[in-house]
Design brief:
About 30% of the residues lie in helices and about 25% in strands. The chain is of the alpha+beta class.
Amino acid sequence: MRTKRPVGLDDGEVARRLDMALEIVEEVEGVIIPHFQSPDLLVETKSDDSPVTVADRDAEALLRQRIESAFPGDGILGEEHGEKIGSNAEGFRWILDPIDGTESFIRGVPLFGTLIAVEYAGSSVAGVINLPALEEMVYASRDQGAWHVARHQDRIPAKVSRVSSLQRALFTSGGADGYKYVDRMEAYDQVAAVCGKARGWGDCYGYYLVAVGRADLMIDPIMNLWDTAALLPIIEEAGGTYTDWTGVATTHTSNAVATNGLIHEDVLRILRSNNAPK
């Protein structure tokens, strides 16, 4: 279920973009953290009823400015500021979520992150999950492995767990609301019932836990491209499996499941039996 390598992909060009992503994500911390747990933080509601703050918008604006300066021909898609079409439709595109987990951010909970992804010819080839309040990060690029950095220590390989049965697995998810919204509460209940432990660590933090081997599976019933694009290369390069609920390895999906790979088919079997959304 691993994604295929895009034809014509230049590893050197991917490396240049990943290096830039790692540089600018630290700059973005300087925009986000001053607003975290601030009593003066103003929260607005977008047209889809999701929250947004000045930190979201300013962080994405900085990301876009730095990317456009370094790679003016690349496309950019961000949650807060829309899409800039690149000069080559089959070339590179950046996909940005400045604060994934805004609900956590506005409540002062440190389980939020910045997601940066790089696509080539429509396939995600590099991704970064940065957790600024926790000072931890995981990142990866196609065929170059996944790497974990904790509290400014030297990087180490990011590896998924070796748990091979759902009965021993730690299942994490964002909670019941999304499952209720898509009328798939039974899927959540059945996965939680069969797994050894179930915890409500959602958003990109849950996928981070899978990538570094601290959790064994993460499921989301509702996803957008800016939520998914960074996750697939990280999970795959860490040795895991990332698909939609039908088992297709893609970021262009409205739902997602990430596992250590060993239990993936068992999870999909439950999701499919509950008529999961396509």
